[in-house]
Design goal:
Layout: H1 2-44, H2 47-163, H3 168-171, H4 177-185, E1 195-197, E2 203-205, H5 209-227, H6 236-251
Antiparallel strand pairs: 1-2
């Protein structure tokens, strides 16, 4: 049995080997035929035609290489243009930023100038108001001095009338019409100032409360100016107020 099986296997292997040999021989024949056809085709093509084909292929190759080089140059130029445009945009951005900063600085300078002008105008208005107030104070002090002079005139007239042996009724007569009008214009009721008699029997003008209140008002205004922080003791307004205070205190009887 083993011998039969071995013999059968060998026959099968021989048959397979024969088939493989046949296929190989057929493939060899086909390759030889293809080679023969190629050789015959080249033998039929003249040498000039081959040279022309080679030259055409070389030209196509050069053209393709030229297009490649051109595309590479265009790409490089595009990169250069892109960098140039980027630098120009950067310069334009910086220029725009500088222009904005310049305009902002100019606007701030104009605003500061307007603020300084406004403060100067406001200070001028304040100073003008202070000057007007000082003129009013001076005018009131001048009125007070005039009232003191009129009081002295009235006291002298009363003394002369008493020495002239006039009666008590005549001693209380009204002053001269011009003096009465002047005193009435300065706030003295009926043109006659308040007075009292001392031991010698002479009439003396009583102190006027307005002088004390005027001095207090001057003191108060000077204190308010100094406490505001905008004025010093050397400021002309404060100096004038101090002078007015001194004058007012000296004129208080």
């Amino acid at each position: 049995e083993r011998e039969k099986q071995r013999h059968t296997d060998l026959e099968e292997q021989v048959a397979l080997a024969g088939e493989a040999k046949a296929r190989a021989e057929k493939r060899i024949e086909e390759v030889e035929q293809d080679f023969d056809r190629f050789r015959r085709a080249h033998r039929r093509m003249p040498e000039a035609e081959l040279q022309t084909k080679i030259a055409r292929l070389a030209g196509e190759k050069a053209e393709v290489e030229g297009r490649i080089e051109k595309e590479r140059a265009d790409k490089n130029q595009a990169l250069l243009d892109k960098e140039k445009y980027r630098l120009q945009i950067h310069h334009l951005t910086r220029a725009l930023q500088r222009e904005q900063e310049r305009r902002l600085a100019s606007a701030q300078q104009e605003i500061e100038q307007l603020r300084v002008q406004y403060l100067a105008r406001e200070e001028k208005f304040v100073l003008d108001g202070d000057r007007q107030e000082l003129r009013n104070i001076k005018r009131e002090l001048d009125d007070l001095r005039k009232m003191n002079i009129n009081h002295e005139v009235y006291r002298q007239e009363s003394t002369e009338a008493k020495h002239g042996h006039q009666s008590e009724a005549s001693g209380r007569r009204s002053p001269h019409p011009k003096s009465r009008d002047h005193l009435r214009s300065h706030g003295v009721p009926n043109g006659v100032p308040a007075f009292k008699s001392d031991q010698s029997g002479l009439s003396h003008v009583s102190p006027q409360p307005i002088k004390s209140s005027e001095t207090e008002r001057l003191h108060r205004e000077r204190t308010e100016l100094l406490e505001s922080g905008q004025y010093t003791v050397d400021d002309p307004i404060v100096v004038q107020l101090s002078c007015l205070i001194d004058v007012a205190e000296k004129n208080i009887p």
